[in-house]
Inverse folding.
């Protein structure tokens, strides 16, 4: 397949358009606000019972997300191995898309009395999102040359932000003005939003499904009596990484700062609702601002990387994340939260996009097993999320404050920063200036 084909790249970017609605509505705005509100009662405060065990409500949702990521950490190596050998990663993209979208639609039935059902659908939706992202990411080195991967990666995130904001605005109308549609049940608008996310996800995913290559079949795989263990594939990737000093050191840094980045993104809405009592409307408005600013942030960081190099830009962004965590600890009103939201928006999309393209740039040229390499990348990120979310929930339950959890995340960023600085120092002695850009 010819690389840098604009129509293929646009189709690939539409996968971000399709599934980012889940990320915005379910993990960032309406679901966290709705969940926190319905699980906070006069009788029990913020305590809920899940299959007979009592949890702090926001800790339970973070534990649930952590569990979803942990399951996928275990499954993805096996699935990516199958995809590489059989050349059917598009089939896996479809499977996880339909699974995640169906779970989102199942959240339409989520109320306090159906808490267990809601949490189960919440977990399955997360698994669908995680799985789809892996196989979509693995197409990046196939559709773009290394010099274009920063731009293409940023384009994918930009499409994701635009698509998710459009659906968020539609949901926003139902949530804020239900009387226009004759809606009297206050739980109906958010539950309708969950249903719309599932529909949106399935409909727009058809664009990349039609245009992306099927990758063909690996004939060697077809004569094997069984598919190699996915964990053997990870071991193979790790062995290859030992001879790629830059990539190996980068992954260590990525692991630590991802603990902070991903946890903040997944827990921010719950923090805003529970700590500052923003309410659904204000919370949605803030997240919309973040999404719009993030489009500019992703593009800005892509251009900055061309001028100053990926590693240098990542170091600067991680420093901003550390400052953001410290400021969040002392936050006391909604206007301070709005200011932090703008800063988070600028660095949120950029660090994800740049992290993905930095990894892709340093993969072996024309490697046939991109799914396995990106499985290793995704396992690294997802394991970081498991640790980050679990730590966040554990600290909140132990101390009774989400602010303590936020400040603890700064330590993850600091460790990541240290490894990035070591990476920059060592890469100067190992790589040329062109390699760093």
């Amino acid at each position: 397949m010819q690389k840098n084909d604009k129509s293929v790249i646009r189709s690939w970017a539409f996968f971000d358009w399709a599934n980012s609605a889940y990320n915005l509505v379910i993990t960032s705005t309406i679901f966290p606000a709705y969940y926190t509100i319905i699980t906070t009662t006069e009788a029990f405060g913020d305590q809920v019972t899940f299959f007979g065990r009592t949890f702090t409500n926001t800790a339970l949702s973070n534990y649930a997300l952590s569990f979803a990521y942990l399951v996928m950490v275990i499954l993805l190596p096996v699935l990516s191995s199958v995809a590489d050998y059989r050349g059917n990663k598009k089939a896996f993209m479809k499977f996880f898309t339909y699974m995640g979208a169906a779970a989102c639609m199942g959240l339409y039935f989520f109320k306090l009395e159906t808490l267990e059902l809601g949490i189960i659908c919440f977990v399955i939706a997360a698994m669908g999102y995680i799985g789809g992202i892996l196989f979509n990411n693995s197409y990046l080195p196939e559709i773009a040359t290394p010099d274009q991967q920063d731009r293409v990666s940023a384009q994918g995130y930009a499409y994701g932000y635009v698509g998710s904001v459009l659906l968020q605005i539609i949901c926003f109308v139902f949530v804020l003005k239900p009387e226009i549609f004759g809606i009297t049940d206050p739980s109906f608008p958010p539950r309708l939003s969950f249903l719309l996310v599932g529909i949106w996800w399935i409909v727009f995913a058809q664009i990349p499904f039609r245009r992306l290559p099927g990758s063909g079949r690996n004939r060697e795989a077809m004569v094997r009596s069984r598919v190699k263990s996915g964990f053997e594939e990870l071991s193979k990737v790790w062995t290859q990484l030992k001879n790629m000093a830059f990539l190996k050191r980068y992954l260590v840094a990525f692991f630590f700062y991802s603990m902070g980045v991903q946890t903040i993104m997944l827990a921010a809405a719950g923090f805003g609702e529970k700590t500052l009592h923003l309410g659904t409307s204000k919370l949605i408005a803030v997240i919309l601002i973040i999404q719009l600013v993030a489009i500019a942030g992703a593009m800005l960081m892509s251009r900055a990387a061309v001028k100053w190099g990926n590693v240098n830009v990542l170091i600067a962004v991680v420093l901003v994340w550390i400052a953001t965590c410290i400021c969040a600890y002392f936050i006391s009103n909604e206007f301070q939260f709005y200011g932090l939201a703008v800063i988070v928006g600028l660095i949120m999309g950029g660090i994800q996009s740049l992290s993905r393209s930095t990894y892709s740039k340093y993969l072996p040229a024309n490697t046939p097993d991109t799914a396995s390499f990106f499985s290793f990348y995704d396992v690294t990120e997802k394991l970081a999320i498991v640790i980050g979310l679990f730590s966040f929930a554990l600290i909140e339950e132990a101390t009774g404050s989400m602010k303590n959890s936020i400040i603890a995340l700064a330590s993850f960023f600091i460790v990541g920063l240290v490894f990035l600085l070591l990476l920059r120092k060592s890469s100067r002695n190992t790589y040329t200036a062109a390699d760093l850009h």
